[in-house]
Amino acid sequence: MRTNRTIFTILCGAALLAAAACSSSTSPTTVTSVAVTGTAPAVGATAQFTATATMGDGSTQNVTSLATWTTSNAGVATVSAAGVVTGVAAGSVTVGATYNSVSGTDAIVLTP
Q1: Which of 9, 56, 69, 85 has its CA 20 to 30 A from that of 39?
Q2: What gap in Å lies between CA 47 and CA 69, rounded to an integer?
Q3: What is the pTM of this model?
Q4: What is the pLDDT of residues 1-36, one digit of tens each?
């Protein structure tokens, strides 16, 4: 009985070591970057922006509806929770999106 328990303990330990050695520091579900893309709307118009997350395994995922959206200057442009940018006044502004604590931005210029 004791021999079986010892063999079991050794096998379990070996399996745990193998699993740890094969793991990577970045899991496929880890977000490594967020890219924000879109075309600047004219003043008084709207444009849909997109947030794309790059995952730890190199794959990409559209996270537009899951991201938190911001602009650097609401006097120039606003952005909705869905990533729709509205031109308010001529000028430069940065549109940002954050997903899983990773942020990306896109600098745009609005014209009248």
Answers
A1: 56
A2: 14
A3: 0.75
A4: 555 554 444 444 444 434 444 444 456 789 999 999
